[in-house]
Amino acid sequence: MFSRKxxxxxxxxxxxxxxxxxxxxxxxxxxSFLRVWLPWLDGCKASSDTRxxxxxxxxxxxxxxxxxxxxxxxxxxAGVAGFNSIDRTNRIGYIGYWLGEEFNxxxxxxxxxxxxxxxxxxxxxxxxxxxRCATANARSRAIPERLGFSHEGTLRRAERVYExxxxxxxxxxxxxxRP
Length: 179
Prior knowledge:
32% helix, alpha+beta, eight-stranded mixed sheet, single chain, Aminopeptidase
């Protein structure tokens, strides 16, 4: 199984169905925290839903369309990240991520996204990485800003999360242009 140790506390693993129970438990414990930004929570009602999602992600990984990783912090599943989509024709990787509330503020996601940049460059030959965050989600936006991504613009009413419309800020890192 694909696994990378990033620090003494942080590792990422290819998301596999065996993680479904623990990942669902994290999702369920953090439902109100995550619900502000993520539109899919109502469709995730049992560990079997998480298992089905992870099986789909493995299929997409096998086709080179995506890479979904589970983040482990000090032995516990802390969240997920990865390339939600890989545009092989244009060599663009689209990164998404979330952490359980108790894992925020520890530098975990910055470390993980930095490694995803290297994976995208070294294994998928992407020439550009794109991250989109809700305008109001300051913690999520801080990650691409911290890692030297350029702000490319704002997409108005880009995502509906339950009854709320969110604008998205688009960040890009063109590999080879990084300072």
